[in-house]
Amino acid sequence: MSYETLKERLTAHGQEHLIKYWPELNENERQQLAGEIGKLDMAEMNKIFQRAMDSTKVIQEKTDDDLKPIPESHYESVPGLTKEKIQEYENIGFQEISEGKVGVLLLAGGQATRLGFGHPKGMYNVGLPSKKTLFQIQAERILRVQNMAAENTGKEGKITWYIMTSEHTMGPTADYFKNHSYFGLNEENIKFFEQGTLPCFDFDGKIFLDKKYHVSSTPDGNGGLYRALKTQGVLEDIKRRGVQHLHAHSVDNILTKVADPVLIGYCKSKNADCAAKVVSKSSPSEAVGVVCRVNGHYKVVEYSELTDEAAERRNPDGRLTFRAGNICNHYFSSEFLTKICDYETKLKLHVAKKKIPYVDENGIRQTPSEPNGIKLEKFIFDVFEFAEKFICLEVARDVEFSALKNSDAAKKDCPSTAKEDLLRLHRKYIKGAGGIIQDNIDIEISPLLSYGGENLEDLVKNEVFTISPFHLKSIYESTTNGVNGNH
Asked: 122: helix, coil or strand?
């Protein structure tokens, strides 16, 4: 694209400052800048900025009358279900898995900057006895649940794993899987795709330059999933494979039950098009968004938007009325995803005022000490309001949720808490299967051996565990892939 063409195009939309330093650039730099500008629909970018600004001006007064909890008819709690009902849902899920109708959407675009780890977060090792990373743990859970479905139905089906990366994590993630032979999964059933980006703006809607030849941009949030599914051919792949159920979750929950057959069975039995797994809030003040209804629409209301009265309200049984804590763990039917991706542009844009490095009018890159612009992002849960049949499944926090977001200095949602939460759960599984173990022993169960506490009794009943750390492994794992014993 020539300088004249670029200038004409940018001037028409008030963004001509992006080529201010064109005369100073070498040929490679000019090609990079022209390529980046060429990918942006400037009219759309201006509309996006204006739409974001307009949405922040609308003061969303949520009176307590507007807020309603999820109706009981649309809400079930796994800890409150009978074993028979759980088995019923699980069997339905196994049937769908065995027929190849289940896929997983992994949100893995994050870089572990807050962890001081210069790689994709999925490559992080929290210090388990096995030294397994988040990616490996989740891959092995997929392998195990596929085997469980085959044992249950007599038919082997494959789960398709769709992994959404970002611009910066795509290459390292794909290489990591390849270098580890896809952790035993079939390469054909793993599809990497990249979420989009949005430019960073100043408060007047001018797009920032990060360098004289590089437009400042940021990933478009986990709600960028929907556009990426459509633009990168993932929807077509889902249709071609006959996948009907998608389990979507973030990479940083070490306890995620990947492709959970109970969730799949629950959603199929209720003919749901969209669902959220939730955990019961630990207290009224816990800083977690709540899944509820606002003016008849299902939404996630941020904890800061709840009045104290609403946050503290309780049902006659003593439980919080607005207790459905959002954990970024969702179900979508393929039909619903296809519909959503057709009007993805209606999704709300969330505005974050940030300190954004930029090239100033003198060509000098500045690193501001105060917020000087905005980053825009979309959230995955903003599609809930478009669902015709939305349901919730409450799960036990100690079994299914432990987030990895901070460094150990925070002492919360950090590597140490993620590691301890997993090991505590595994001690519980072993005790439940008849093993004898002290609470201070670090014992890890391989996902290849047990998905959710099953398949352990023959190994551990009446066994006394005294060695720590210990890795209880499947016979399919190499003896070098763990420590202190191979079962």
From this structure: helix
CA distances from 166 to 61, 219, 375 (A): 35, 7, 16
Place of tokens 């399919």: 476
In one-letter notation, the amino acid at residue 234 is: V
What's this model's pTM, rounded to 2 decimal places?
0.92
Residue for token pair 């049949």 = 389
Task: Give the residue ranges of DSSP H helices in 251-370.
Answer: 261-269, 308-312, 334-342
Residue 483 pLDDT: 34
User: What separation in angstroms does the CA of 299 have from each of 146, 276, 289?
Assistant: 32, 11, 10
Residue at 425: amino acid letter: L
Q: Which of 63, 391, 422, 15 is nearest to 257 (CA)?
A: 422
| CA dist 256 → 187, 396, 469 (Å) | 22, 11, 23
Query: 227-268: per-residue pLDDT in tens?
Result: 999 999 999 999 999 999 999 999 999 999 999 999 999 999
Rounded CA-CA distance 446/141 in Å is: 9
As a whole number of angstroms, the distance between CA 220 and CA 166 comes to 9
245-281 exposure pattern, b = at least 16 Cβ within 10 A, e = fewer: bbbbbbbbbbbbbbbbbbbbbbbbebebbbbbbbbbb
What is the spatial distance between Cα 420 and Cα 426, in angstroms, rounded to a whole number? Answer: 10
Element (H, E) at 332: strand 324-333
